[in-house]
């Protein structure tokens, strides 16, 4: 059983999926970080792969650009393919003086100028946040690997070519960086009762005008990718421990 956007068979995706925006980054991750990676979906060229990292099944598939695209792909992974964890691995634009090019940012939450959360019909403003277990795991992995990270708020915008001064206004409230997908991912995870986290790399700086090239964005964000993969391994270990604990509890109840 597939979807209009995903031809993968049931069981083709691992419980944790890394989601870059760019299909070429998905291909790069599969070829350079996963063992025995197999292409499981290529509808519209999103390039979804499943392989192993340190003997742990992991999938990677592009989300495309913007919240509508992320909304479609993450919804289908959570609901149709029973994926438990989605880790966005993408680029962000710094709007904080704390950040420089190639810094790794963990999205604790995602502000948004989008109407995406309106679909839930809530009498108020829903605040999309990351899953704490994934965030805690990423922080621990970063310390273990010696990767410096900034943890804080992202801005998920529906508009790429917006006035710089409008975007920088969010930075004055402590928002670290701007991108276009995380709020939709966090909303979908909350609705599905699943887990999501954005692990991103600064590709450009709106304060200084510095920016990385397209090629650098596709192939040089290795710290972010390794960190996300380590989180995938940790989540698999936690899941295994949970099943072992449940099985032991069942045995304890047998006379």
Notes on the protein architecture:
With 255 residues, this protein is of the alpha/beta class. Helices cover 37% and strands 25% of the residues. The protein contains seven helices and nine strands; from the N terminus they run βαβββαββαβαβαβαα. The protein has a five-stranded mixed barrel, surrounded by five helices. Helix 2 runs parallel beside helix 5. The longest helix has 31 residues. The chain is globular, with a radius of gyration of 18 Å. The model has no long low-confidence stretch (mean pLDDT 92).
Side by side, the strands of the main sheet go 5-8-7-6-9
What coarse outline follows from CA principal-axis ratios?
A: globular
Low-confidence stretches: none
| N-to-C span | 42 Å
- Average pLDDT figure: 92
Tell me the series of helices and strands, N- to C-terminal: EHEEEHEEHEHEHEHH
List key phrases describing it.
255 residues; alpha/beta; 5-stranded mixed beta barrel; 7 helices
Secondary structure layout plus pairing:
Elements lengths: L15 E4 L3 H11 L1 E7 L6 E6 L2 E5 L6 H13 L5 E10 L9 E9 L19 H14 L3 E8 L7 H8 L5 E3 L2 H11 L2 E11 L8 H6 L2 H31 L3
Parallel strand pairs: 1-4, 1-5, 5-9, 6-7, 7-8
Antiparallel strand pairs: 2-3, 3-4, 5-8, 6-9
Helix pairs in contact: 2-5, 3-7
Explain briefly what this protein structure is.
This protein is α/β, with parallel strands linked by helices and 255 residues long.
